[in-house]
Design a protein that fits this description.
By secondary structure, the protein is an alpha+beta fold. It is 18% helix and 34% strand. Strands 8-7-6-5-4-3-2-1-15-14-13-12-11-10-9 form a 15-stranded mixed sheet. A hairpin with a 4-residue loop joins strand 6 and strand 7. The longest helix is centred in the first third of the chain and has 26 residues. The protein is rod-shaped.
């Protein structure tokens, strides 16, 4: 009986121990390891790298509000025991900087503001432009002085830079000169008709080839202290329209029928036809200008918006064969200023009021030009 009681006693002890072991296994032994739940973190919260950084904390002179970060509830607890670097565990408190005042930035030169930021903030990899946008702070930019553009020349500035002297003039009487006209292989006639009447004049040139009008130029106007004073000049060519230059003496300018170009009306200005009579009137009144090396300068205007100073240099006496015989003339040359400028040669006859007995004109080396040579003087 004693042996049987001992066996029942051990069987009871073993049964109680078995019950305790089953209860401990089913409960997860929560009481034995209190930090076990904190260690078993889900994988998702580990995406937050708030503390997993190797960069030192950066301070900036410009206050930037930290962006809101979604923080998982499982990691937002003081019981997290994940190893953290010392700098990340205790970040240095950021200084509370106030936005830069507008007054010092406005007073600084344009290059001073970027230098000040670079001196206070350490170099970082991210660009600084997003920081400025986050602040949304208006920046006062100092006014930068801009050099004034050079003033544009007046719309009707005179061409040429040579001074125009004031000459005395002696106008020729009414006369008609007929010329033989050559241009390349073409041959015709040209009549120069000078008709002064009182305070006005009309000067006309008609060029014909085989009875066909190929060139008609007309200059009309009056007279002033400088001599011939044109008011209107027209130029008509074969199969082309008529172009004109208008000498608006009341307004002090020269305008054109085609281009909108304007020129200042200078004293003694002439057109492409009246210069022949003006040159004769100047040489007739001042004979010393008919000596070699002397110059006669005038301002000559065309009908296509062109104007320039023509300087006639006296070459000296030269004989010219004409239809009326040999003429002892005085030669003047207007030399070109540019490659395609107009070259003029003219021979003045003292016995015909210093009017031209021959004249040539061409523009550029490839221009055939035309040649006028006196054939006869008409009554």
């Amino acid at each position: 009986r004693a042996g049987t009681r001992r066996r029942w006693k051990w069987l009871g002890v073993l049964s109680v121990a078995a019950l305790l072991l089953h209860a401990a296994a089913l409960s997860g032994v929560e009481w034995a390891w209190p930090e076990r739940e904190a260690v078993r973190l889900p994988a998702a919260p580990m995406r937050v790298r708030l503390v997993d950084t190797a960069l030192p904390p950066r301070e900036s002179a410009v206050p930037v509000a930290p962006a809101a970060r979604p923080i998982d509830a499982a990691v937002d607890t003081p019981r997290v025991a994940v190893p953290v670097p010392e700098r990340a565990r205790a970040p240095a408190p950021r200084a509370k900087a106030t936005p830069p005042a507008a007054e010092p930035m406005a007073a600084a030169p344009p290059a001073a503001a970027p230098q000040a930021v670079a001196a206070t903030a350490p170099p970082i990899d991210a660009p600084t432009a997003p920081v400025q946008l986050a602040l949304n702070t208006p920046v006062a930019h100092p006014a930068v002085p801009v050099a004034a553009a050079p003033a544009a020349p007046p719309a009707h500035a005179p061409a040429g830079d040579e001074a125009i002297p004031h000459y005395r003039t002696r106008l020729p009487p009414p006369i008609t000169l007929r010329y033989v006209m050559h241009r390349g292989i073409l041959r015709g006639t040209g009549d120069l008709v000078w008709r002064p009447q009182g305070e006005h004049y009309e000067l006309r040139f008609d060029g014909r080839v085989a009875g066909l009008a190929v060139l008609t130029q007309v200059s009309t106007g009056g007279f002033d202290a400088a001599g011939v004073a044109p008011e209107r000049f027209t130029d008509q060519r074969l199969r082309r329209g008529t172009t004109a230059a208008n000498f608006q003496r009341a307004a002090g300018k020269i305008t054109f029928s085609g281009p909108a170009t304007e020129f200042v009306l200078r004293d003694g200005a002439q057109d492409r036809l009246s210069w022949m009579v003006q040159l004769a009137a100047i040489v007739a009144a001042e004979p010393h200008l008919a000596t070699p090396g002397a110059k006669v300068v005038m301002y000559v205007v065309g009908s296509h918006g062109d104007a320039d100073v023509w300087s006639f240099r006296c070459i000296g006496p030269e004989a010219v064969e004409t239809g009326a015989g040999t003429v002892d003339a005085i030669k003047f040359v207007r030399e070109p200023r540019e490659p395609y400028d107009t070259t003029v040669q003219v021979w003045l006859d003292p016995l015909r009021h210093d009017l031209p007995v021959r004249a040539t004109q061409k523009s550029g080396a490839n221009d055939e030009g035309f040649d006028l040579r006196l054939q006869e003087t008409l009554p």
